[in-house]
Specification:
Layout (H helix, E strand, L loop, with lengths): L38 H12 L6 H6 L6 H7 L5 H7 L5 H27 L2 H22 L10 H18 L3 H7 L1
Length: 182
């Protein structure tokens, strides 16, 4: 039997078929995802924001590579890593697809921002970093179930509007072009 759809039960009750041990852990018992995965991207964003003032951060940035959800936890020292890996099997296919789409966009944008940092293109670096923040908000919403039905917070919309306007101003990219790339 597959788990009950996201957001159909109170947060303190895991869907049927999901082990009760996910409640009160790093794993969201409704989505079966953990926000700890976003640390992989947040660390890159932190370095991207520092590289203009501390060029030596570029060396650390160049070591960053995309990592799948499972690989991130497998390689981590996070106490609940095995639980996070196991829970990923319970993620509903539409939610997993949405999550992996956002992760793919994060991967591409981090790599783009690293290229911008390497080239000394501060305008593109700023635009990419702004867009990364919006993508982190989107991923967090998916992980926490807030975006599972397509609902987006005003804060997320503001980040997207700012990132889109910045991208259009710098690159001449339209909002539709940006949406197509995600």
């Amino acid at each position: 039997m597959s788990p009950t759809p996201v957001n159909s039960l109170p947060e303190d009750n895991p869907p049927p078929g999901a082990p009760a041990r996910y409640v009160d852990t790093a794993v969201n018992p409704n989505t079966f995802l953990a926000t700890d995965y976003l640390n992989h991207f947040n660390e890159a964003i932190m370095l991207l924001e520092m590289v203009a003032d501390m060029p030596e951060c570029l060396e650390d940035l160049e070591e960053w590579t995309p990592k799948s959800y499972r690989d991130h936890f497998h390689d981590s020292h996070f106490a609940a890593r095995d639980l996070c890996i196991e829970a990923y099997d319970f993620v509903e296919p539409p939610l997993k697809k949405q999550f992996e789409t956002v992760v793919s966009a994060l991967d591409r944008k981090v790599l783009s921002a690293i290229d911008a940092a390497r080239a000394g293109d501060s305008a593109r670096l700023t635009a990419d970093t702004t867009f990364l923040r919006a993508l982190i908000d989107k991923a967090s919403g998916v992980i926490n179930g807030a975006d599972a039905e397509g609902a987006e917070s005003a804060s997320h919309d503001d980040h997207i509007d700012t990132a889109t306007a910045t991208a259009e101003a710098i690159f001449g990219e339209t909002a539709q072009d940006a949406a197509d790339s995600v």
